[in-house]
Amino acid sequence: MTRRRIYVGWVGVMLLSGMLCGGCEKEIAIWQYPIFWEPGELEAIAVVPFRNTSIQDPEAGNTIADRLAVALAANGTYPKVYNRGDLQALLTEEDLRMLAGGEGDTAAILKRVTAVQAIITGTVSQFDASTQSHQRQDPQYAWDQYGNPYFVGNSIRTFTRNDAIVTVTATMLSTKTGQTIHATQTAQWHMWAEGSPPEMSMDACLAVAVNVVTSQLLAEFAIVGRVIKVKPEEVFRITTGELYDGKWEDKNSFTTADETMTVVINMPAVADRSQFRMTVIRANTKKDLFELDFQWSRDAPVTGQVYIFNPSAIAAGGGGPGEYVLKFYAGVEPIMENRFYIHRAR
């Protein structure tokens, strides 16, 4: 699978991933992988027209399906994405209608689509936009020569509120078995604007809601870049290597005779399969003494994944006892660090 397109535009975010967020939180740029996705398993997928149970727009199902197909094709997770137009050459109108409506023998229909390994279908339950206006009277005053206010009339202003809400669910089905590969959580967005006049029209609110819902669905089916917030003291720690009441005890002092320094990483599950890196340098220097690249897994122990460094070897390579820094990288920039000390063994 070609990943190059996925990376476009995200490198810049990775460069900014070391920004401080709030008090003690850090922002980390990661790749979010669909739970079901494995390299090479799904090379070609198709997006069929979605079932539309909303009231206002009869084309809502086609609109969401088309937007999702375009987003998946641009994303690059799947080398080939068939859209609604492509499917007209693979299936009959009746087949497409039954898939969109969840009717008939879905498995039998899917098995006829030999060009793809999976099909995405779904339901649009809300695709609604509305506008409401009301008038408000504001009293107006003037001042006489003595500085006393007096009523001169009412100013009438029209205030308008525009609302739009889009709600969608989607499912990926295997064309080989007809079984569900992945069913999404409900994707929903409510956009509104209010004012005299409002900053966004009713149609503009609907367009934003469609875009956000499409992005939510994309994140369910494709590899996407996102930024998560973590607390360094919870996800990146140097410890004694021992748990007490289910918690790690921190440690930042070692000797040149010590051969074990236990580093515990405990990233959130959403960082599954994202790549990270740790390096050790002597304080106030730039040379990496040791480095470790690793891939995070959602299957890591609930207490965190343990990595072992050797203080004795670090001191030997770093000029002896002193202060050292363990850095944590997500992308090209270090975003967290822990300082520790190595003393001469007695």
TrEMBL record:
GO CC terms for this protein? outer membrane-bounded periplasmic space
- A Pfam match is CsgG
* Name this polypeptide is given: Uncharacterized protein
